Amino acid sequence: MRRRLFFWELAGFLFTGALGVLLHFLYEWSGGNTLAAAFSAVNESTWEHMKLLFFPVLLFTAAQFCMGERDGLLAARAVSVTAGLALIPTLYYTYTGIWGDHTLWADAAIFYLSAAVTFWLDSLLRRQRRLWGMGRQ
C-alpha cells in the first residue's frame, strides 16, 4: 500500500505543480476569457494563487477516484487541500510582512510548498487512517 500511495501522491504533486503553472498564464493566453478566469489567475492576489492549487487538486482527485483509488481518499484530500490552501495566504502575508515586499521566487516556492504539504498530509492521513469512521455512532 505504501508504494502505491507514494506513486499517487508524487503523481498528484507533479500534476498539480505543472497544471498550476499553466493555469497561472491561462487567463492572459486566452485573451481575458471569462471561463478561463474562473479557473486561472486573473491577477497576482493570494486568492488567485489559491485557485492554482485548488483546481488541479480537484481534477486529480476526480481522476484518482474514477480509477478506483477510494480508500479514504475524499476525506483525507478535503483536509489536506484545506491545509494547503491555508498555507498560501499565511506564508505570503508572513514573509511580505517581514520582508516588506514580495518576490516571484518566494511566491513560486510558496505554491510548490503548499502543493507538497497537500499531498504529504493526504498520504499521512490515508496511511494512518485518521479519518476512517468519523461520523459513525
Describe the structure concisely.
With 137 residues, this protein is an all-alpha fold. 78% of the residues lie in helices and 0% in strands.
What does this structure look like?
- This protein is mostly helical and 137 residues long.
- It has five helices and no strands.
- Helix 1 crosses helix 3, helix 1 runs antiparallel to helix 5 and helix 4 packs antiparallel against helix 5.
- The chain is globular and about 45 Å long.
- The mean pLDDT is 89.
Low-confidence runs of at least 5 consecutive residues: none
Main pleated sheet: none
Helix content: over 70%
The total count of strands amounts to 0
Q: What attributes does this structure have?
A:
mainly alpha, 78% helix, 0% strand, 5 helices
Outline the secondary-structure elements.
Blueprint: H1 2-29, H2 34-39, H3 46-66, H4 73-99, H5 104-128
